[in-house]
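re: ur question from earlier - yeah i can do the single chain one, its not a big deal. heres the input i used so u can compare w yours
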Amino acid sequence: MPTPRRRQSGPDRARALDQYHRRAAVYDFELALFEPVRRRAVAWLAPERGATVLDIGCGTGLSFELLHSAVGAQGHVVGIEQSPQMLEQARQRVQRHAWRNVTLINAPAEEARIGLRADAALLHFTHDVMQSGAALEHVLRHLQPGATLVASGLKWAPPWAAPLNLLVWPAALHSVSSLAGLRRPWQHLARLVGEPELQTMLGGTVYLARARVPAAGWPA
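and the output i got, formated as tokens:
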């Protein structure tokens, strides 16, 4: 599937902020189709009771309920989101549910002042973060030795299902700032911690990747 030349570069923060400024009010409705992917991603992450989980690119907080249910009242969920408009939706969600153990950070993933080492990290439909080695290193630096990381998102369909790229292309243009890396979105994660375990859904147009932080931990 050919892609526009101007979108072959890496993530564009200004473009992403503009996209999600416009989408914040309707984002929950737009992502409804992909809820089964979210549920599988959180189930595969399998955070334990009392664990601390980073929700990277948390958007409007759609994953919070699943994560909060998993870690319980003694656990901690840290949502990191660079879009102020999206994070305001997440803040309202936290207030509605009266969650006292959800912390919100308004910052790009590579700059967030997290201040702890978590037990797990979720990156659900965060293609731009997955294409930033600096962002992934920053996340890994704030995970405990042996911690689990699960990422999910769009990818180009395999050759046998190439016509499905007619659906992937507009969906990606609507939600990412660059189409670079859609053939193998987990490539930077693999470079940092080794090849992740993979699952695919929806005819191979959606992936889930699970990796673990080395037992020695990631250098501070």
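The longest helix spans residues 84-97. not sure if urs matches, ping me
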